[in-house]
Amino acid sequence: MDTIAKILGTIFASFVTCQLLFHFVSSWFSAKVSPDFNSLSLEKKIEWNSRVVASCQSLVAGVFSLYIFIFDEAAIADLLGGNSSLLNVNIAISTGYFISDLLLLIFYWRAIGRIAYVIHHCTVLYAFCLILKEGVLAYFGNFRLIVELSTLIFSQR
């Protein structure tokens, strides 16, 4: 299987996983942990599920990013054009999440849509597509993903 197929497969798998987390897993788990979840309004449930998915993605991307930043010799050896398969997987996973979240922002605009979020998601997707297509500045894209760990704090407000 060639690299493009692996990247697209990872993006698709990440997208599907995020959609499943949003539509099924988060609601089921939240209701099990807190019975009050079921009494929330639809808009609050949408916002909560969105935050759960964002927290899961930030944990995965953040841990991968820290590992790559510290230990991935292929990425560290060439900061501008380093080609690391683990780094590409991390960017692809995050790309799937951003596509999923962008569609959720648009579909549930009244509950979670903000123009700033759409601009942010489109900008990140553009940068990640360039990284995956051209193979340049991937290390800096990974460094940017370390910041995703802050989502764990901001999503819990």
Description:
- The protein is mainly alpha-helical and about 160 residues long.
- The protein has 8 helices and no strands.
- It has helices at about 5-35, 40-70, 75, 85-105, 110, 115-135, 140-145, 150-155.
- Helix 2 (about 40-70) packs antiparallel against helix 4 (about 85-105), helix 2 (about 40-70) crosses helix 7 (about 140-145) and helix 4 (about 85-105) packs across helix 7 (about 140-145).
- The protein is elongated and about 55 Å long.
- The termini are far apart.
Q: From the helix content, strand content and strand pairing, which structural class follows?
A: mainly alpha
- Average pLDDT score: 93
Low-confidence regions: none
Task: Please state the CA-atom Rg, rounded to the nearest Å.
Answer: 16 Å
The amount of beta strand, in percent, is under 5%
Helical amount: over 70%
Q: Quick one: how many beta strands?
A: 0
Instruction: Give the biggest beta sheet.
Output: none
Q: Secondary-structure element order, as H and E?
A: HHHHHHHH
What would the principal axes of the Cα set say about the shape?
elongated
Distance between the termini: 43 Å
- SS element count, helices: 8
